[in-house]
Amino acid sequence: MIRLRPRLGAYVLALHLPLFACATLLLPSRPLWFVGAEALLLASLALGWLLVRQALEPLGYTRRVQELLQDQHYASRLAAPASSELDGLVDTFNAMLAALHRERLAIGEQQGFLDRLLEATPAAVVVFDFDGAISLVNASAAQLLGLDRPQGKPLSAWTDGAAGFAAGLDARARARGRQLAAQLDALPLGEARLLADPDGRRYRAQRGRFFDRGFARHFLMVEELTAELEDSERATYERLVRVLAHEVNNTVAATGSVLDSLLFYRGQLAEPDAGDFATAIVAVKRRNKSLGEFIERFTKVVRMPPPELRPTDVKAVVDDILRLSREQCSRRGIALGWHRCDAIAPLALDAQLIEQALLNIVKNAIEAIDEANAARGAAGGFVRLELAGEGRRVRLSVVDSGDLLASGPARPLFTPFFTTRKGGQGIGLMFVREVLQRHGCTYSLAAGAPGETRFDIWFPAA
């Protein structure tokens, strides 16, 4: 428009200049006609300028709207035009600016709500840009993966070591973040999977996409399901065991009574037959009793009483377990003892429940070493214990040389009926889990240093 106005003005002036020159020919002979012609030409020139200005006025409003759109001043409005012919155009422009202003306010409110929602949600959310680099992570994702300044980097940068983790993370947290990042990076679009980290925590992860300015962008959502799955497993276990215990106990009691009655008939048989008869009845009774004890071990988890918390010396409890286990370890050539033992104040624990749980852990460690030695055709090994004060928590660790968890996560071992040991029942570690959870403890069963397996328990400090 800036160039068009002078061009049109020059064009109108160029049309009138020859007419002005022709009008000068009337000056010598007809001066009145000359004056009239000049007046008409000046009026025509003024009218031409006026028409040019009116013709370019819509372009002026268009330029003003363009400036407002570029500066995103959607709250501004165009002034009323001098000509009534432009009222419709100006009203249309103002209506468009008002609509954009309302849309911008709505988008801003939605974006603010989305930002607050992402920060408040316990689910981890990672959003990628058009090139697959991270553009947004909420607080839950940053804590879960331990990423340090992730914006602009692909998720694979944390799996190949090209990017760093947040400061203050220990080696286990870095390993968890690296493994989760690798699993999330390989997650196909539109698919949801159950993932597990090195500590065995389980997560539901899904990859989706949305369209931004016509192009697809991906996002990841990760939600931890460990507690929910454990609660579901526990409820299923309790229902199943109660049904089994009811049926088996009724059968054991009835058959036991019948077997006791059958022994009265021994005297009515010949001596050779009476001996065999009594032996068979006793064997069946023994098997009947074993079946009752078998079910009792399962129901022990369901009927576990609430812990009676009293000040308990953890070291004294562990020392008793070491004395009980020292003989069987000596026969196997397994070194058993303390590796570190800090002076710890008594903790509020149920000594009997904790002793049973720790005895189960040490027993599992010894059996893991036996299994590893049988596979290697070797002997020896170690089970060492560590008791350490860590500020607001107390850590008790049982470390063994069985190294049976190097190939995968350990969390399935806490699942009811899951076992890796031949002849195992899959209830030992579930009992341990119940005891620790009822005491408010956190725990971790995972591979430690090369060739080692660690069971770490963190008690709340006194």
From TrEMBL:
Keywords: ATP-binding, Kinase, Nucleotide-binding, Phosphoprotein, Transferase, Two-component regulatory system. It holds the Pfam family PAS_8. It is an enzyme of class 2 (transferase). Residues 243-462 form the Histidine kinase domain. It comes from Telluria antibiotica. The keyword ATP-binding applies. The keyword DNA damage does not apply. Residues 110-151 form the PAS domain. SUPFAM superfamilies: ATPase domain of HSP90 chaperone/DNA topoisomerase II/histidine kinase, PYP-like sensor domain (PAS domain). This is histidine kinase. It catalyses: ATP + protein L-histidine = ADP + protein N-phospho-L-histidine. It comes from the Bacteria. Its EC number is 2.7.13.3.
